[in-house]
Specification:
By secondary structure, the chain is α+β, with helices and mostly antiparallel strands. The chain contains four helices and five strands; from the N terminus they run H-H-E-H-E-H-E-E-E. Strand 4 and strand 5 form a beta hairpin. The radius of gyration is 15 Å and the shape is globular.
């Protein structure tokens, strides 16, 4: 496992090579580390990955992707249930040195949505490096 200084250096190299910022590469890494936890959880088939982060893997979208969008299936769209599931996924240890902890959940009330949506925010940490990540839309 990499230490904090080595990770920062590697992220700087990647950012420079891609012509982007260290912060953007860091956010991307956090989102991917959460996805690693989801893929190693018992809920991997209940979350349909969609949105800008997915699209950015296939085409240049010229905008920073700051959250992960999912459509959930076979899970009740209730705050307590979502908090339980996301907390369980976030605590899944994939031995990468990253730590994700619960921060907040807010209901999304948007007129164009025909379903209940939520925005989940998690605290994320690697060594002394900290940030928040978001999962939005219908989860």
């Amino acid at each position: 496992m990499m230490n904090e200084a080595a990770l920062k250096e590697r992220l700087k190299i990647i950012a420079s090579g891609k012509g982007t910022t260290l912060h953007q590469v860091w956010k991307q890494l956090l989102l991917e580390r959460f996805l690693a936890r989801l893929s190693n959880s018992s809920y991997q088939d209940n979350f349909i990955f969609k949105g800008g982060l997915l699209l950015a893997k296939y085409i240049t979208i010229n905008r920073e992707t700051v959250d992960i969008d999912f459509l959930m299936r076979k899970i009740k769209s209730e705050k307590q249930q979502i908090e339980k599931i996301i907390t369980e996924i976030a605590s899944n240890n994939v031995e990468d040195g990253f730590i994700f902890t619960w921060f907040s959940l807010e209901e999304l009330n948007q007129p164009h949505m025909d379903y209940t949506g939520f925005r989940v925010t998690l605290n994320s940490q690697f060594g002394n490096m900290q940030d928040k990540i978001h999962q939005g839309n219908r989860i």
